[in-house]
Amino acid sequence: MFPDVAVIPPRYASIQRGEVILDQYPVDTVISSQSSCPSISIPAGFTDDGLPVGVELLGAPHSEPALIGMAAAYERRAESRRPPASAPSLVEWFAGHQLGVSTGCQLGMSRGLTDLWYDVQ
């Protein structure tokens, strides 16, 4: 287990102004991609300023089911998710919109699964 990122992330405006070069930004998630081992990132709480913090679990080759199980168990127990203060209430948003299933269904080509497409009206 290790943090996804070991430093406070830059603001988007700083990236746009060229003050931060993303190639030089220290992310730890590259560990799993370079090791060819499976990993999963899970929310782990918040900084004092309310920024989300994530940790990554790194597993042995072919341990995806165990990683998913551990992440799911942790998330159920820790309750470490919450919407950012800037996010609108989904309850209010859905109250103002009707959801319906579109008339067309498309057959998924890769696994033969039926995908339903939902339209916001």
Biggest β-sheet: count, sense, barrel?
Answer: 3 strands, antiparallel
Oligomer: single chain
Provide the low-confidence segments as ranges.
101-121
Cα(first) to Cα(last) distance is 43 Å
Global shape: globular
Notes on the structure:
This protein is of the alpha+beta class and 121 residues long. The chain has one domain (2-87). 26% of the residues lie in helices and 27% in strands. It has 4 helices and 5 strands. The protein has helices at 12-16, 30-35, 64-78, 90-95, and strands at 2-3, 39-46, 52-58, 99-107, 114-120. Strands 1-3-2 form a 3-stranded antiparallel sheet. A two-stranded antiparallel sheet has the order 4-5. β2 and β3 form a beta hairpin.
Please outline what is shown here.
The longest helix is centred in the middle third of the chain and has 15 residues.
Features:
three-stranded antiparallel β-sheet
Describe the secondary structure blueprint for this structure.
Layout (H helix, E strand, L loop, with lengths): L1 E2 L8 H5 L13 H6 L3 E8 L5 E7 L5 H15 L11 H6 L3 E9 L6 E7 L1
Antiparallel strand pairs: 1-3, 2-3, 4-5
